[in-house]
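Dear H.,

Thanks for agreeing to be a second pair of eyes. The structure we're designing against is below in token form, covering all 428 positions.
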């Protein structure tokens, strides 16, 4: 027998029985019964805003799959570029498909000189790289005006390739500008992560070859960050995309959403927290302060995961490989102790608070030499593939524009009073 739910309007006694499909009930059905009564869910914690075939996340059981493939297998065997293909097209590529994809991405890494000279160099010397990234992604739409033609799938795909390809160039350019160093052009003989590291760190040498352990570690981090279903920035992408804005404008909006410390900025907060704790000896007193509600344990807890974030487990292993090369971060011991203390404490266990992806990623980025300002930028590079997969899916679904309702809690109608009659007591 099909599973259903019955909603009864106790004012009228009318009821509606709605089937539960894929774990959800269709709001169109209940809205027939309840015209003008809205479901109040401001942070969408219990609302599904999309049907999506891209990423499956089971937070209770700590499961994450892209297009059906477990994240652990992808992190172990795949590359970011292959994962980007998987997210965009739905299946892993054949060797020929992958080669064509790799060629296309590699040959779209350059940015227009005007974007570099006039936009990027125009920023103040201490501009935050995320601010630069948001603005230059938006500016790209003016360089490719045909991008507005989202009815044509081949035009959309061209912008998808350009965006995935140019994100590392924009990201590294933002860093070089803030460091007062000359812009490094892409090197098409390098793979995706190694090319990014070359654009970040190259100085006078003719070719920069990153340590393969570090470029592989970065590629694994890119895989882990490539998509995470309906998170805040993807919701921004889908909302803006639902108005049929071009892919650059929608990606700029998603990047802006990622900028916030509750989302992409959390790994920076973890490093700051570990610095404040300062020593293993202070871990217990810090945890006690968290339990008293004085602050939150950064890198712990997640809206959806109520179990160990599977990405955090992979990142912990990647961190060991990176520290073999770079030497151990002095903050690592504090992080490990913090995790041990928190995971044996009733406060964290009863609230199902486990380390999330950000708990160890900042330590890796720091060990690789990235300044903290760049951490969120490093998140935005791979998440672009996920955002664009959702953008394409949204267009394919021919969905309606996102336009939620509100519960109005403001003043009832009142008369306009001329300014000379107002004495500040118009509150009523
Ligand atoms: N430290 C201490 N207590 C916490 C933490 C934390 N990090 N996170 C949640 N709690 C407690 C809350 O105080 C609350 O306790 P209560 O029931 O006694 O009031 C309970 O756990 C539930 O917390 P909510 O705020 O309802 O959880 P929500 O889903 O709204 O928040 C969030 C999720 C924002 C990620 C939160 O856990 C947090 O602030 N974590 C720290 C920041 C962080 O690591 N963000 C990265 C997220 S991953 C990403 O975006 C890539």
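And this is the sequence the design step returned. I haven't edited it by hand at all.
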């Amino acid at each position: 027998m099909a599973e259903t739910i019955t909603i009864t309007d106790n004012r009228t006694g009318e009821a509606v029985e709605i089937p539960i499909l894929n774990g959800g009930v269709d709001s169109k059905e209940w809205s027939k019964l309840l015209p003008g009564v809205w479901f109040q869910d401001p942070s969408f914690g219990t609302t599904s805003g999309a049907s999506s075939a891209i990423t499956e996340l089971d937070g209770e059981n700590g499961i994450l799959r892209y297009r059906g493939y477990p994240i652990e297998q992808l992190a172990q065997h795949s590359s970011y570029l292959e994962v980007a293909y998987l997210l965009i097209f739905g299946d892993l590529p054949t060797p020929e498909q992958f080669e064509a994809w790799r060629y296309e991405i590699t040959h779209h890494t350059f940015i227009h000189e005007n974007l570099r000279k006039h936009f990027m160099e125009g920023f103040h010397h201490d501009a935050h790289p995320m601010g630069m990234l948001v603005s230059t992604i938006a500016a790209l739409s003016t360089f490719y005006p045909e991008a507005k033609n989202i009815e044509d799938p081949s035009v959309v795909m061209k912008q998808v390739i350009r965006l995935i390809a140019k994100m590392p160039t924009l990201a590294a350019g933002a860093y070089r500008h803030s460091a007062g160093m000359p812009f490094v052009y892409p090197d098409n003989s390098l793979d995706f992560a190694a090319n990014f590291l070359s654009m970040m760190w190259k100085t006078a040498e003719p070719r920069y070859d990153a340590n393969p352990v570090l470029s592989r570690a970065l590629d694994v981090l890119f895989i882990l960050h490539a998509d995470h279903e309906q998170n805040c920035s993807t919701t921004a992408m889908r909302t803006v995309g639902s108005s049929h804005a071009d892919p650059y404008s929608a990606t700029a909006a998603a990047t802006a959403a990622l900028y916030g410390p509750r989302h992409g900025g959390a790994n920076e907060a973890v490093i700051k927290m570990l610095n404040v704790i300062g020593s293993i000896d202070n871990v217990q007193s810090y945890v006690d302060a968290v339990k008293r509600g004085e602050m939150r344990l950064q890198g712990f807890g997640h809206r959806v995961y109520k179990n160990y974030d599977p990405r955090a487990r992979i990142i912990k292993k990647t961190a060991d490989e990176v520290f073999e090369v770079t030497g151990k971060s002095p903050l690592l011991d504090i992080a490990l102790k913090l995790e041990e203390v928190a995971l044996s404490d009733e406060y964290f266990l009863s609230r199902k608070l486990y380390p999330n992806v950000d708990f160890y990623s900042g330590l890796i980025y720091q060990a690789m030499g990235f300044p903290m300002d760049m951490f969120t930028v490093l998140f935005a590079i791979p998440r672009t593939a996920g955002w664009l997969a959702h953008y394409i899916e949204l267009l394919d679904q021919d969905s309606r524009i996102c336009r939620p309702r509100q519960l109005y809690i403001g003043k009832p109608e009142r008369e306009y009073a001329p300014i000379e009659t107002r004495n500040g007591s118009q509150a009523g």
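Two observations from my side: The longest strand covers residues 15-21. The chain has three domains: 4-58, 69-264+371-396, 274-367.

Warmly,
E.
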